[in-house]
Amino acid sequence: MSHMIELESLREEPISPTLDYGEDHGLLVSYSDARAYKTPACFRGIWEKLKHEAKQIFHPSAAVFPKRIANLLYATTLIFFGIFISTITIAFFRWKATDPFDTFFARFWDEGPSSAHNPAKYPIEFFGNVLPIPCHSHNDYWRRTPLFAALGSGCISVEADVFYRNNELYVGHTESALHPGRTLKSMYINRLVDLLDEMNPTHWRAADPKGVFYNAPHQSLTLVVDFKTAGNETWSALYEQLQPLRERGWLTNWNGTHRVERPLTVVASGAADFDLVASHNQVRDIFLDAPLAELDHPFDDGTRFRYNVSNSHLASANFHDAIGSVFRGKVNDEQVLLIRKHTQSAQQRGLVPRYWGTPRWPRGLRDEIWALLVRENIGLLNVDDLRGARKGNWGSWS
């Protein structure tokens, strides 16, 4: 009798001392909701039609063999068509679904890491377990929480496109997308100052400045500023706005003889002029994004190079323009050798190689090209889908 009582008690739900699941439970629930997918009514109708046709094929009344064959071909066609449409639809909706990781950081984006509601808790609570990986958050400003979602995913490089207008740098992909509240200062510079302030209490700053990652405090974060407007005005505005970071000693710089690594490395890309960068001969804390596919220059002699660590940090190229089309989802041997040549040429100059514009769809092809680039020692993996960067083994490569 006692054994029966024990078995009955095991069937009951254990009594928990608290019903408060905490923030982790809420995050997991929102993540599950984001991934949830219900079969549309149209696909349920197709399934019912398929079952009906399958019954008709083997029904005793279907004695005529050609008719059975026709029914079988019809049903098979419907099956493959249904699978194809379902696969495309499910993949599309999952791709379009809001990244729950991005949404989770929305409150920090709205309030700021050092707000009255969350004083100095953002990096302490949520950066402690982040493992930085060599990925670049391409067009980072398009995310729900620019900068924060990228850092939370481990990206060591973020990108902002800027237009110079009325002595201000506005962030946007096109001129029509510019907004008064979306500036380089408000979206990136001020927030980086807040984060690095929390990582570097005043009495530690002069001795050993720490970066944004707790697990890799000496890992420098790269801020790529893609110039959409050329000229001295864009450059001068960027130089001026970096002053709060510069005066705290947080910018990687060329001191005239060698390069000094600091928590933040600023790179000018796009319409940035090489001569404008190189004109700052003695002290430089804004570096160039060199042309990966065109690094060779008549000035080079094997030991000295036009593009080097004194004036450049990244070396980037459009994947399609530099490598060519991927035929039937495969990178051929000649293209692999070209990738190898580009990466080795950049590394010879002390630069970090990167391809942008890599295929994003289908995901299998994207992951295959990512894996190839990792094997060929790419310096930064250009990422549009942060969820794709967080999954698999991308966090384990050194």
Automatic annotation (TrEMBL):
BP-aspect Gene Ontology terms: lipid metabolic process
Similarity comment text for this entry: Belongs to the AIM6 family.
Chain segments annotated as coiled-coil in the UniProt record: none
Entry keywords, A to Z: Membrane, Transmembrane, Transmembrane helix
Native source organism of the sequence: Paraphaeosphaeria sporulosa
Record's protein name: Altered inheritance of mitochondria protein 6
Transmembrane region(s): 72-95
InterPro entries referenced in this protein's UniProt entry, alphabetically: HAT_RTT109-like, PLC-like_Pdiesterase_TIM-brl
Listed GO MF terms: phosphoric diester hydrolase activity
